[in-house]
Amino acid sequence: MVHIVVADPIHPDGIERLRAAPGVTLDHPATANGASLVDRLKNADGLIVRGTPVDEALLAKAERLRVVCRHGVGYDLVDVPALTRRGIALMITPEANAASVAEHALMLMLNLARNVVPVSAAVRRGEWRVRGQSSTFELGGRKVLVVGFGRIGTRVARLCSAFGTQVMVHDPYLPAGTIRGAGYEAIKDRDAGLAQADIVTLHVPANESTRGMVNAAFLAHMKPGAVLVNTARGTLVDEAALEAALRSGHLGAAGLDVLRVEPMVQGLSMLELDNLVVTPHVAASTAEGLRRMAWDSAGNVIDFLAG
Ligand code: NAD
C-alpha cells in the first residue's frame, strides 16, 4: 500500500482517480479533520500541492515521502534543494493548463486593445457617451513579441496568428530554426524586438535570471504606446517601473494575471490606473484547466509510486 496526501482542494476528478487506484490510501482536505499537514505527512509516500509552500518545516516528519507533485507548472513555492537533499522527486502537470493560460493572454490583449474594463465601467455609470471617446485598435496587422516560446508561448503565438497579428519570438534558449520552422520571426536581440512590438507578452519561467527583467530599461525599449501582458510570474516585473511607464503614457496599457506579491498588497497605487487590467492569478483556473491539473497530478503520483 502507498499513502498519498493532497494538501489543497483540487478538482473532484483528481480525488476520484486517487481513490480508485489499487493499493492507495488517501488523505485529502475533506478528510484531514484539522490535523496539521506536517503530521499528515508522517506516513505519506506521495504529496500533491496546489498553493501550499513545500519547505524544510513542512518536510520535518515526512520520512517516507518519495514524490511531490505540484498541481500546475511553476514550482517557485517548492524548496527544490530541500527535496533533493531527501531524494524526493518533484513532478508538475506541464500540459494541463497551457491552453487556458494562452487563452487568458489573448483575452488580456483583446481587453487592452478594446479598452473593455474602463468602457464597461463607464456604461455602468450611465455614460454611453464614452462610445465616442475611447480609442481602440485591432490585433490584426499589429506586431506581437512573444518572450519565451515554451508550452504557453507557442500556443499564444498560434492564437495571435489566427488574429492576423505578426508574430515575433524571443527565446535565447531555442535555435532560431525552431522558431522560424514554426512560421515566426526569430528575434535574437530582445531590445530590437521590444522597439518594434505593439504588444509584448511574457511566457518565461521565474528564476534568478528572469527576476525583474521587465525593469525601467526594458520598458524604455518598448515602443511608445505599446501594451504589456504578463501571465507568467509577478517577480518578472519591476512594478514601480511599470507604474511609472503607465502613468507617463510611455506604455499604452498593461494586463497582468500575476503580481510581485500575491495575494496583492492592499493600497497598491498602480491599481488606480485605468490603463491597467489585473486578474488574480486565474489564467490556469478554467474548468478544463483545473480538471486536467487535478487528473494529471493524481496520475503522476500514482504512476511514480507504482514504479
Ligand atoms: P516552458 O518551460 O514550457 O517555457 C518557457 C520558455 O521560456 C522556454 O522555452 C525557455 O527557453 C524560455 N526562456 C527562459 N528564459 C528566457 C528568457 N530570459 N527570455 C526568453 N525566453 C526565455 O514554460 P510554460 O509552461 O510555457 O510557462 C511559462 C510561464 O507561465 C511560467 O512562468 C509559468 O510559471 C507561468 N504560468 C502561469 C500560470 C498562471 O496561472 N498565470 C499558469 C501556468 C504557467
UniProtKB/TrEMBL annotation:
It comes from Reyranella soli. Residues 106-283 form the D-isomer specific 2-hydroxyacid dehydrogenase NAD-binding domain. This is D-3-phosphoglycerate dehydrogenase. Residues 4-307 form the D-isomer specific 2-hydroxyacid dehydrogenase catalytic domain. InterPro entries: D-2-hydroxyacid_DH, D-isomer_2_OHA_DH_cat_dom, D-isomer_DH_CS, D-isomer_DH_NAD-bd, NAD(P)-bd_dom_sf. Pfam families: 2-Hacid_dh (PF00389), 2-Hacid_dh_C (PF02826). One of its GO terms (molecular function) is oxidoreductase activity, acting on the CH-OH group of donors, NAD or NADP as acceptor. CDD domains: PGDH_4. Belongs to the D-isomer specific 2-hydroxyacid dehydrogenase family. Keywords: NAD, Oxidoreductase.
